Amino acid sequence: MLSIKNLSVKVNGKKILRGIDLEIRKGETHALLGPNASGKTTLAQAIMGFPGYAVASGEICFGGKDIASLAIEERVKLGIALAFQHPPAVKGVTLSNLLGKISKRTVKTEEFIANPKLLGREINVGFSGGERKLSEIMQIVGLSPKLVVFDELDAGLDLKNLAKLARIIKGKLLENGVSLLLITHRGEILRFLEPDIVHVMLDGKIICSSDDWRKVWRTIGKFGYEKCKECEFSSGR
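== ABC transporter domain-containing protein ==
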């Protein structure tokens, strides 16, 4: 589904990512852990093709196609979606209008929200943190993507709301074979979505990859991210 090989990315002339290798197959859930400023969001922006995130070397392939030179909208058409950590407010456009314009499939909004008045409000204007996340997920479900990158889905949410979002993601995305990349600093989302593979990023490099997310997260919780440089899984994969 997604294949990244030896990827290096520069932002404002400064190299942020260094030699990233990452492969996500159809239906797999991967988690990318790391402290602030480790390069996690830069990787998300590079996958989406945001301006200013220049590929210095390496490749990004999606579905066997090199997408490194494609514009954002072309990557979206191929089936890549990004959920922002801080979804922007958009005045003058209601959530209902946006869903009507972008949705490739019917979105049964009552399955997401209890208050239908949310649909008539301007996108994310005055929304709570949980409402913003629900708005993002409704939009993503409507797009029918093949791969979704969630940037800090668990940021600013209590466990009750996080559990609710996880149930929606399982029912609307994972059960339909969608691949996920969960970018997280806190790691709370792991207990709800249980990734197949977990990666740890430090200083713009993936230094650890493992299929035992519990052991990796326990190690980080007890010793901090620096301990990952020493653990048995650390291989630079």
